[in-house]
């Protein structure tokens, strides 16, 4: 059963309020390597959860052109540029994705210098693994020789989108390399699902965790990468088949509630809503583009319903797993606590923006 358009619009308004109201309550103490306090909750912090949150806002703004949303985005970035940006790593790159989207639409000259500087430093200074992959270093930990599937959403998509918008094909080429290298080491040939990570130190996939949110980053960002017009046809064809293999494995793992578990193939792990939202976004988008069939769309709409029932009256997405490091065993993933976050809000926003767009295309009245 598909929701009504007016239901979706109400939920989207609640989600924006829920995102901007997020505040760190001190529960998680994760100091950065430079000694500063880490804040992965509050909306006003420059980190990866907030970066994903901003991307959700930017996509919502692109759909409705709400001046209040544009002002919210612009004021957020203006404040941070004025106070100075943090050090560069894969996760602190995440807020640049929404900024590149904003700049590509408005061409506001305030944003171009920061975007160029960050892209240049990411290309020149970001630590690399063997074969040129971006090493997944974060604000509080260096991870030598490690590839994580999060990297493609946090950094690869920024290079692709900004590279196209700014007429810098070398950035698009680098993004493509990252997608190909990560697919080589993280995509599980036995199932089509993706492992959370890979290390060149010992050459293994850690716990071989087929972690839901990591897979959702892949589903979502492959579809968003396809929006880059100058993507070579061979790359598009290859990644389309990678996506199809993943979704073929995903569909039977959807629970009766329309959700997916935090370890996709582990019935002992809990249902997790940020991943469910990411899958809903990707499945609906792929079905709308003709990449997937009616079974993809049906699973996507079931997931939309699962997401909507997990948005409370304050607009906060519930049953979202907290930021997840590379786990040494599968129990590590089962034990990750639940915590409202910016990426939970954002993935729900992306999911509902796509759902609303498809209802509009189908001519479904409010």
Provide the low-confidence segments as ranges. none
Rg, rounded, reads 19 Å
SSE succession: HHHHHEHHEHHEEHHHH
Tell me the major beta sheet.
2 strands, antiparallel
State which percent range the strand residues make up. under 5%
N-C termini distance = 15 Å
Q: Which descriptor suits the 3D outline?
A: globular
Strands, total number: 4
Strand order, biggest sheet?
A: 1-2
Number of helices: 13
Structural class: mainly alpha
Describe this protein's structure.
The chain is mainly α and 366 residues long. The protein contains 13 helices and four strands. The strands form two sheets. The chain has a two-stranded antiparallel sheet with strand order 1-2. The mean pLDDT is 95.
